[in-house]
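Here is one chain, start to finish.
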Amino acid sequence: MGYKTELIYVNDDCFEIIRVMPTHNFIIPKRHPNRLDKELIGLWVHHLGGERVLRRENNLLIVKKVEEADYEEIVEKT
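Its structure:
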């Protein structure tokens, strides 16, 4: 995680937002008029090291899942 990390929770999973990009950046009229270009989105996700794309209003969020910590409870014997 970097400095000033924003987290978002979806279905009990925690994600770190890597980049927020407007959806209009992913519409290429010559290839797919009025649709998001999934190939272009995939290239951006790979370039930024993300794992998933979420949509919030008119933005696409490129995110990475935050791993749950593995821990063991330590009990002191007295």
